[in-house]
């Protein structure tokens, strides 16, 4: 059924749970998984009063590499064929969801898997919802994996 699964990772608990589900599905269907980390620094503007832009981007890319390395280890241990991709720039600032959908289309993914943080209130209003954006922008099946609700 599924031969290509695009897995969006960000190093969070919900992303880790999404990885677990992607492994289960890939093993059951013989699918290949492409783990994708999109480096986008727009969310940080809501949380930092002072920052060094170069240091911020460097740290974000390092975080992305770490998240992808961890995913690669788990996929390898599970015997799942996989690819890793770090996109250093989203399609447009603040458009992580558009980048995920564009990558899923370009790679011809059969399924998109990602975690959702369950943000609510002002934080969701300001930061938006990547998972909601993916659902609105794709015609591919999407599996959302939710962890605990964040405030």
UniProtKB/TrEMBL annotation:
<protein>
    <recommendedName>
        <fullName>Universal stress protein</fullName>
    </recommendedName>
</protein>
<comment type="similarity">
    <text>Belongs to the universal stress protein A family.</text>
</comment>
<dbReference type="GO" id="GO:0005737">
    <property type="term" value="C:cytoplasm"/>
</dbReference>
<keyword id="KW-0963">Cytoplasm</keyword>
<dbReference type="InterPro" id="IPR014729">
    <property type="entry name" value="Rossmann-like_a/b/a_fold"/>
</dbReference>
<feature type="domain" description="UspA">
    <location>
        <begin position="1"/>
        <end position="146"/>
    </location>
</feature>
<dbReference type="InterPro" id="IPR006015">
    <property type="entry name" value="Universal_stress_UspA"/>
</dbReference>
<dbReference type="InterPro" id="IPR006016">
    <property type="entry name" value="UspA"/>
</dbReference>
<dbReference type="Pfam" id="PF00582">
    <property type="entry name" value="Usp"/>
</dbReference>
